[in-house]
Design a protein that fits this description.
Elements: H1 6-29, H2 34-37, H3 41-66, E1 73-78, E2 84-86, H4 99-103, H5 107-112, H6 137-147, H7 194-198, H8 204-213, H9 239-242, H10 290-300, H11 307-313, H12 320-331, H13 355-364, E3 384-386, E4 396-398, E5 401-403, E6 408-410, H14 432-442, H15 449-461
Antiparallel strand pairs: 1-2, 3-6, 4-5
Helix pairs in contact: 8-12, 10-12, 13-15, 14-15
């Protein structure tokens, strides 16, 4: 047989190699990609809507098993605009166990007895296998009313009840104009009203930054292709759809930087209040400025860390000098809510606080060791810490989420913390009372019941 010339043999072999790589990549990525599988959108809708009630029940059963979801308000404690703060520990204990008995056990004993409360395990996404951005109904309804843009997914709904998430819409405070109080005037900021609300308060660069923050861009579940989870072709998602009014509405997602899927964390949407004093951003905490985060969030979280999907769905890379910088400047104007009980150094003013709050402050900076990671005045050390919760439980997969090691997590600021339920990086702690019980075990603090109540009282004053 006649041998091909060397150059032609090289080209033929190269083409075959490239073809094999393409087929291999398509086979791997096509496992969950309707475009590559060729499943028509109409069939995706029919299939997922048929499955939807079963997955919704699965998640609701998990929440009911782990938590007390009752609407039980704390007496005389509200968020900044008046929504009541939820009271009490909501995580359910194992049978025949009290919090004091549990705290007396070592991590090894808790693990051996399988006594770690299920509510302290990682919380799965509402449908963990499907993942993706999912929004509370309050945000969906108001966005439709103002802009006719529908953020409803046809395959799943948000899972937590309204009384356990932040007030909506949240007030907006600016470091440049603290005299104005809530500059949103009780409205959800959208493309429909941002100029009317802010044109006399911001300079043109800052106003353009705000415009971009409320502008929708294509996203994995909301886009113009047939690989989406909205019934109609969609403009996309804006930064302030999750960070509503520069705060949070508890919208959730799964992180893009972890694989395989069962190990991906559910994301708690952090507040952007006080973002100007923070130094770590993104689920992997690899971004060192809010400008870095703003520039790369769309390419990462919006498309589950898959740049090939981003290109196909219409990613819009932002220009650093004329867009990212403007967006970052506005975000750095977002202030924490007023805290009338704190001094200028972030400590309690003895003249305006209760004995319980002052005892709680002493615990926070003493026995409870909270200030090690949350120093005043902003109550963050801008670092990451590994709580090593895997000391307390055996690896288990629940609702598609494998509870193993969480790894290092960011220290979030505690200023205005009562306005930002639920807590921890994946929303597993529904109240501040839950948070105190969690860290009492994780840090081995041996706090007494009255001390826990005092610590919660202090946290509510921040």
């Amino acid at each position: 047989m006649r041998q091909l010339p060397r150059r032609r043999r090289w080209l033929t072999a190269g083409a075959a190699s490239i073809a094999a790589c393409v087929l291999s990549i398509a086979a791997l990525s096509g496992q969950d990609d309707p475009l590559l599988k060729g499943e028509p959108l109409t069939e995706v809708i029919a299939r997922t809507q048929k499955e939807k009630p079963a997955f919704a029940k699965r998640q609701q059963d998990l929440l009911n098993a782990r938590y007390d979801l009752a609407d039980r308000a704390a007496t005389g404690v509200t968020m900044t605009r008046g929504k009541v703060v939820q009271d009490g520990v909501r995580v359910k204990l194992p049978a025949n166990m009290s919090w004091e008995q549990l705290a007396a056990l070592s991590p090894e004993e808790i693990k051996k007895r399988n006594a770690w409360p299920a509510g302290f395990l990682p919380l799965p996404h509402p449908h963990h296998e499907a993942g993706g951005m999912i929004f509370p109904k309050l945000l969906i309804d108001e966005t439709i009313r103002q802009t006719a843009r529908d953020l409803t997914r046809f395959d799943l709904d948000f899972d937590l009840p309204d009384h356990l998430i932040p007030e909506f819409p949240a007030p907006v405070f600016l470091v440049t104009r603290p005299d104005l109080g809530d500059v949103s005037k009780g409205e959800l900021i959208t493309l429909d009203n941002f100029e009317r609300l802010f044109k006399e308060i911001l300079n043109p660069k800052q106003l353009e930054g705000l415009r971009l923050l409320v502008t929708p861009f294509p996203q994995q579940q909301f886009n113009l292709t047939d690989d989406r989870r909205s019934l109609k072709a969609h403009q996309g998602v804006g930064c302030f759809d999750c960070h509503a009014n520069g705060h949070t509405n508890a919208a959730t997602h799964t992180v893009g930087d972890i694989r395989p899927n069962e190990f991906r964390h559910r994301i708690d949407t952090p507040s952007l209040r006080g973002v100007g004093v923070q130094r770590l951003f993104g689920s992997q905490r690899a971004l060192k400025s809010v400008e870095d985060f703003t520039e790369f969030e769309q390419r990462a979280a919006y498309f589950d860390g898959d740049h090939t999907r981003a290109a196909r769905k219409g990613v819009n890379p932002l220009e650093r000098g004329s867009q990212v910088h403007f967006m970052g400047e506005f975000q750095n104007l977002l202030d924490f809510p007023p805290a009338p009980k704190l001094t200028v150094l972030g400590r309690l003013d003895a003249a305006t606080t209760s004995e319980a709050e002052r005892r709680g402050e002493a615990l926070f900076f003493g026995k409870a060791q909270c200030s090690t990671c949350h120093p005043a005045p902003y109550y963050t050390d801008n670092l990451m810490h590994n709580l090593r919760t895997e000391r307390f439980y055996n690896t288990i997969t629940v609702n598609g989420r494998t509870a193993a090691a969480d790894g290092p997590i960011k220290t979030f600021p505690l200023r205005g913390i009562k306005d930002s339920p639920p807590y921890l990086h994946d929303d597993r702690l529904l109240t501040l009372d839950d948070t105190v019980e969690f860290f009492n075990l994780v840090l081995g603090l041996k706090l007494l019941p009255p001390e826990k109540r005092d610590l919660v009282a202090f946290l509510r004053a921040l």
